[in-house]
Amino acid sequence: MQVYNFxxxxxxxxxxxxxxxxxxxxxxxxxxxxxxMAGLDTGRMKRFLPDGAQSADPNGKSAxxxxxxxxxxxLMLIENPAYAALFEETATILTDAQxxxxxxxxxxxxxxDQSIVVLEEKLDGAAHLPDGTKVFxxxxxxxxxxxxxxxxxxxxxxxxxxxxxxxxxxxxxxxxRLNRLKExxxxxxxxxxxxxxxxxxxxxxxxxxxxxxxxxxxxxxxxIADSLEQEMDETLAKTAPIVEPDQTIGRSxxxxxxxxx
Length: 261
Hints:
three-stranded antiparallel β-sheet; two-stranded antiparallel ribbon; single chain; 261 residues; 2 domains
């Protein structure tokens, strides 16, 4: 029996929550700084100003010290409303894309679990050689092992058939589908990682992204989510092997129509 290992990714929900909190803080900083610079003491600038900047004269050196206390990203968000709006929009796009990929991953993992159960049932119902090796009859009547190897005639003669065993093509189709689902799972995880790198790039306070970078990030995140959704839909639309009666093989077996996977 083949063993399938699963890789559990980092906690995407926790990472997404942390990013959302960070972007919300940037927005609060923008509002508070505007109020402070207008002479309206909100009392909330202290969360990112050092002691010296907190106590400085608001009509003298305060503005300079406060500006020095802000990061480059915070200054850009404060001084450029268009940039701030684009930054917020991009952050939302990236968060939404991650949420879509989370849903895709959950769906694919459910399909993987189901496919493993079905495959295990197929293998449990297979015929076997005296040493326990599972064997299957293909459409031509040839007896094969799971890896496709032909079983010698003398060994084939020892097999006890009950007439309900899965065919070689049937089992291979289920294996192929499971492998395709695992590939898609990996593709989704790669997409999550790439979008996660973009979100991390937006967190860099000292090296803020340009407007073009933000636009590229937003477009790329949407493209990743859209492409994976199409890939997932196409994969899940492919059915399990269709079995049709065929009397050309000695027993009541089947001609298997195997979908491309």
